[in-house]
Model the fold of this input.
Amino acid sequence: MVIAVNGIFLQHNLMEGYGHYANAILLRLAAAHPNHQFVIVFDRPFNNQFEGLDNITCVVVKPSARHIPAYLYWYNISSVLALKNFKPDVWIQPYGFCSLSSSIPQILVVHDLAFHVFPKSIAWYHRWFYKIFTPLFLNKAKSLVTVSAFSKNTIEQYYPFTKNRIITIPGAARTAFKPIDWEEKSAIKNEFTNGNEYFICVGGIHPRKNMMNLLKAFSLFKKWNKSNMKLVFTGRLAWKYQDFMEKLRTYKYRDDIVLTGYLSEEKLIRITAAAYASLYISLYEGFGLPIVEAMQSGVPVVASNQSSMPEVGGDAVLYADPNNPKTIAEQMQILYKDEKLRQFQIEKGLERAKNYNWDQSAASFWKEIEALVTVS
Done:
């Protein structure tokens, strides 16, 4: 069998949620099925993290698909023509878009419908593109995959014709996320926060990630406690980050805020594991990998009580209303004041994280591939 994979976001040390999901599934599929060939189609030069897997072929197809006309050309013309040489049996599309012109059976992964639920969190022209083309993509794809029951229900609500067609295959934390010892924690804190404890918030600086309300919550926490606690934001400067940066200029506790920018996987793993607690107060997520990564690292989590996050965290996470900074600050305060509860949450998180396993997710994905090829 020849399996094509859209590799647009598989850029090593530049990946975020969508890319990590696709990368983890692909590596396991290729390793577990060495007699099948995988063709990864990129839209630009890439750092090859697939060396050592002889059944993976990587090709670059221009143009770079980073604006709407290029999307349409790449998905429907250039990549389709390039794949004719390989005659794929199936084409995995991990990022919510698929080819409308290809005759190859396609598996489409849709992580969320943020453009519907939070339309103001996306540029108008991208919102237009999603609204016009998403139903076409969902109808064209032979198989539909999403990452949570929440996302499945949301997709079916907005697009009833997908009912009974979507399967749920969740993500998981990378295996390197794990608890670390006191000495390593101290070294990381010395590197990033002058030796102080810190809350960590993982994700791009973007309105949907709710960073402004997190700053308000941190202000309340600092008022309630005479503490050297820091707040670390780790992630790229994403869409409309300017408002956040402007707020920081006059923020009372600016000296207690650390912006790391986008970190390599190695550094992200270390800085997550050394945190006092993880804050994931997003307004909307299809899954929320940083929740599982923190739990698996032995770090307690305060998360938003909306969208998929209660599904992911279960009873191992403390929840807050993302629109109410006081409730966020209160949960931060609880963890800070009650060490026994904090330890209890750590233990529950470690156990909860075991529910998410990349090997199981890859096995489920392979069953979907086999079923699709058999039917086709």
Residues 8 and 172 are 21 Å apart (CA to CA). The chain has a mean pLDDT of 92. The chain is about 45% helix and 15% strand. The radius of gyration is 21 Å.
